[in-house]
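To the wet lab folks,

You asked to see what we're planning to order before we commit. Fair enough. Below is the target structure as tokens, and below that is the sequence we designed to fit it. If anything looks off to you, flag it before the synthesis order goes out.
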């Protein structure tokens, strides 16, 4: 079981003391960051039909280069790993070349950017893939995804065999190498939000009886193997991992997450750039992970104890003041405010996110949010 949170004061473990302010410089592996503000990965569905990054995506990310770190949106590592239309990939040379204009634009603006690598697993549809979806086990997610034929139910997937598992692991490592060729400062392995790695961790989605299923040790094996191969390909100091304990995205049904995620964190390779935690509701468990993880921790904190909502600057400062994390990631606030650090310094005001445009395509609601300077 996990260790309980500190009582009363919210005091941090002594060895982790010293985090003070959102605008302190920070380090995460090889990354040297101008501040502790992180733009969280957010699917925007603006990639080309062939999974290439577009000129609009370069503008979008460059506008947000003032954040200490940008984690670019979920990017599939193979053609069979795409989750929905408009999502970018990193499994072809053309895709890697297209991302170069994004990374160049961010670097020219003084920013740092990593890319989140993912495989959808069962959260997809043959309309997108031209073939069956795959997963740890043949268990439908009870979720929908968006294809060229509209919003459709995700079907029952085919269970990956050992050769299929090895192929997906190799796809992650190859995509990480392409990310380096494309100019990214690192990669984030997506082990949360209901996608393939998360499916292996979850006992309801993973009903295997081989070395990848059953016990906690077996269910974390795919996540560890994938992270190991990515870290070997590009260096652990350029590799991060994102997790979402107690999350229920896309049909995940948390059961023994306390045991699963403490075991996972303990088993992750040493010297990783960071661990990125999407906090759903359990602050005690976040403290437990903070105590166990000795590297840099990025927290996407829950607002007011609830799953969802917008992380505020006040909430982020509280997290750093308590030394619960080293950096704080913002989702919708970073999406709607390209100059988020400047607005935080000024105490606002903040643009309101236009949720109707989140996945609508085109530049409205993507590159047209004004900065404070443009407003004045």
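Sequence we intend to order:
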């Amino acid at each position: 079981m996990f260790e309980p949170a500190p009582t009363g004061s919210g005091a941090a473990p002594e060895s982790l003391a010293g985090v003070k302010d959102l605008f302190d410089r920070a380090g995460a592996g090889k990354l040297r960051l101008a501040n502790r503000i992180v733009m969280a990965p957010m699917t925007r569905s603006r990639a080309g039909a062939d999974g290439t990054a577009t000129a609009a995506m370069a503008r979008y990310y460059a506008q947000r280069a003032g954040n200490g770190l940008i984690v670019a949106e979920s990017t599939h590592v193979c053609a069979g790993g795409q989750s929905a239309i408009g999502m970018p990939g990193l499994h072809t040379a053309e895709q890697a070349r297209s991302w170069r204009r994004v990374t160049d634009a961010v670097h020219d603006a003084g920013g740092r950017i990593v890319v989140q690598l993912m495989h959808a697993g069962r959260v997809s549809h043959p309309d997108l893939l031209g073939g069956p979806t795959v997963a740890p086990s043949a268990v439908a997610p009870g979720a929908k995804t968006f294809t060229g034929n509209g919003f459709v139910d995700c079907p029952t997937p085919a269970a990956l065999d050992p050769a299929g598992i090895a192929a997906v692991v190799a796809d992650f490592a190859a995509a990480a190498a392409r990310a380096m060729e494309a100019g990214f400062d690192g990669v984030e392995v997506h082990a949360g939000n209901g996608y393939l790695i998360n499916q292996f961790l979850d006992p309801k989605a993973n009903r295997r009886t081989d070395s990848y299923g059953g016990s906690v040790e077996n269910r974390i094996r795919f996540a560890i193997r994938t992270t190991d191969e990515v870290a070997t390909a590009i260096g652990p100091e350029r590799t991060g991992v994102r997790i979402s304990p107690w999350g229920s995205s896309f049909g995940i049904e948390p059961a023994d997450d306390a045991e699963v995620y403490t075991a996972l964190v303990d088993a992750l390779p040493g010297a990783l750039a960071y661990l990125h935690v999407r906090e759903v509701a359990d602050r005690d468990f976040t403290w437990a992970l903070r105590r166990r993880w000795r590297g840099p921790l990025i927290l996407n904190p829950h607002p007011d104890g609830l799953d969802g909502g917008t992380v505020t600057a006040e909430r982020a400062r509280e997290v750093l003041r308590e030394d619960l994390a080293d950096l704080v990631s913002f989702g919708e606030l970073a999406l709607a405010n390209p100059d988020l650090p400047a607005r935080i310094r000024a105490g606002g005001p903040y643009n309101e996110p236009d949720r109707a445009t989140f996945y609508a395509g085109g530049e409205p609601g993507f590159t047209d949010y004004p900065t404070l300077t443009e407003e004045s």
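Structural context that might help your review: Residues 1-17 have pLDDT under 50 and may be disordered. The chain has 13 helices and 14 strands.

Thanks,
Computational group
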